[in-house]
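Input.
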Amino acid sequence: MLIKLLKFILLFYSSIFFTTTITFSEDDTLVIEIDNPKFSEKGLDDKTYEIKAKKGLKSESNLELFIVEGKFKSKNDGKWIYLKADSGNYNQSMGLIELKQNIEFYTNDGEILKSNLASFDMNKNVIELKDNISHLINEGIVIADKSTISENFNKFNYEGNVNTTLKIKD
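Output.
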């Protein structure tokens, strides 16, 4: 009797914290709506990240995300890199998150990267910004068509039409 009561209490509290809706898409693929999905990793290699969203639509190995927020810890100096985006698509099997619209990566040091399209390969720790890139740094701003960030947010490559404006200190 006690076990049945504990199972009921656990089920009741689980239903409070996780609201899901199961539907089928037009091609009969099972789609599960998840409120406030969150996934994170803290590995032995000091790889740490957390990504969450207001809502998610799960089908097969993909999770479509809406109002995305995240944070990643760089290995070298332990600097936190934060993320905001309007939407995204997380492919769990590939360890890849594709982001869309109003994407912003930023740090506590005041460094801000903005873009309209981006992908983050969590296995390789590589971020690719693909549309309307601006990188605000304490010393100025870089505007480019494309940017690749690697080596734990320490190496930045810019491609295409690249403009740099530097601030001159008096």
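The longest helix spans residues 2-17.
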